[in-house]
Amino acid sequence: MKSATTLSQPELRQVPAREGEAMHELMRNLYPICRSITGAGTVETLKRLQKIIPLSILTIPTGTKVFDWEIPKEWNIRAAWIRNSRGETIVDFKNSNLHVVNYSAPVKAMVSLDELRKHVHTLPEHPDWVPYRTSYYHEDWGFCMSHNQLKSLEDDTYEVWIDSSLEAGHLSYGELVLKGKSQEEVLISTHICHPSLCNDNLSGISVAAHLALHLQNQKRKYTYRFLFIPGTIGAITWLAVNELHVRRIKHGLIAALLGLDGAFTYKKSRIGDAEIDQVAEYVLTKDNRANKIKNFEPYGYDERQFCSPGFNLPVGCLTRTPYGEYPEYHTSADNLDLVDPHTLAESLRTFIHILELVEQNRYYLNLRPKCEPQLGRYGLYSSLGGENNVKEYQLALLWALNLSDGKHSLLDIAQSSSLDFSTIATAAAKLHHAGLLRELSAPEHAIERV
Asked: What is the mean pLDDT of residues 402-421?
């Protein structure tokens, strides 16, 4: 049996190429499923994830009040098509689940071309692509097709059929808790409601699932909670059900849009300078990755629910190319060819690196604060490495001693000193072992001394 290791080992970031391939294969496996905010497709997606991680599937009944919202009717679809007067099939749901407006009410009717056009969505700017559209909270029906196909339709009578149902049922979501030494939690959340869209958000689902796989075999300071939830209503539901629990969330990340090769984009929490915001910005900068750091705004993914003023949780959002900033967004062109295994592996490495620092970041208190201690007496100079790193190590010891006042974290010290976090962490660990620093469970106010 493989022994557990700690997250501090840098080799954990060395995600092999085969893991990128495994994430891409998971996306391929989930791609055909017609997911939505409720229904059999969502449940099937969660069941397939259960084959690789020990996910619990939870259900909330239709009609349940969740703050200002209500769990909607459960939507399921079996078939749908448009046929002309000659019986020829123009559009068929079985060829692409994007062909039907998600959450369409059932319909069976004969309509003119003019009437059909009122219920068809296209993308004139990308005439060969099929758009993704929804009607979650307004009962309607509709189809999606390429603009070129719509233009080619004859003036005819068309039979439209959507074999769907909107009935009392459940909203389902997946949850996985990996317990650590502390009850304080790191939240990783990803949305699962989009059908046959790879970057948005099969990529987030795959990266989150493989991140959970990595963390299962590690010794963990924090408890990790993974959520696989429908967008918006899923986060609102989880918060409503777990309102008394959320105080345990110390750090959080939304995982989305992680399969398209582009600059990492980190959107800060509403707090703005939460520890997770500082760690994410530090990692993206130190890893020399092209990146964008954005301030919080109440628009986007589920960070806007976790960061709503009544909760104000330290939850940021990590993506690659953001929503709306690549032409394939919410179209049939967001397919398996758009994303690649290498980019998925790189995204997973970045999440792992961020969590390494979250796990290692500590607050210490200097137990010999009056002048510098004579470090040679504690054997701290005897463990120096090669000559090239002697000065850096000595500086790290002095910086760690000087700023370990209970209110500066190791990350704060690394940033103040311009030394690498790992160097500061190593120096602090040696000072702690020598009895010169005491680790704190939480930051304290600086102690005033005469």
From this structure: 95
With 80 as the cut, is the pLDDT of residue 185 above it?
yes
Question: What gap in Å lies between CA 412 and CA 347, rounded to an integer?
Answer: 25
Name 147's bridge partners.
none
Question: Do 386 and 428 meet the contact criterion of CB atoms below 8 Å apart?
Answer: no
> Model pTM?
0.93
What is the average per-residue pLDDT within 422-441?
A: 95
CB 277 within 8 A of CB 250: no
Nearest CA to 311 out of 213, 189, 210 is that of: 189
- Per the CB < 8 A criterion, the answer to whether 150 and 158 are in contact is no
Displacement of CA 168 from its chain's centroid (Å): 30
Per-residue pLDDT, 323: 86
Distance CA 267, CA 185 (A): 20
1 has a pLDDT exceeding 80: no
- Output the six-digit token pair for 398: 């002095």
The closest alpha carbon to 390, from 423, 433, 347, 344, belongs to: 423
Q: Strand, helix or coil at 91?
A: strand
- pLDDT recorded at residue 15: 64
